[in-house]
Amino acid sequence: MPTSIELNTSLLKILTQHPGGLTVREIDQAVIQDLGISSELANQIRSGNRTEIQYRMAWCRTKAKKAKLIDRTGPGLWKLV
Known about the structure:
Blueprint: H1 4-17, E1 22-23, H2 24-35, H3 39-42, E2 45-47, E3 50-51, H4 52-66, E4 70-73, E5 77-80
Antiparallel strand pairs: 1-5, 2-3, 4-5
């Protein structure tokens, strides 16, 4: 499982490459691809129907938003501030 630093770095890298913003699903998929996360690990369920990666990426977005690095724009789009 990638560390929170690896996930945060990838999140910011991905959003830098997409200045118009991305949806949560697009961000998660891009980070999985960027970090070379296996499909087995990417599909590991944490609880309910939420994967461990989705859970950790939600925390990454929350922390980055609190640090005023990213923000939501429009319906479900995230982009760099």
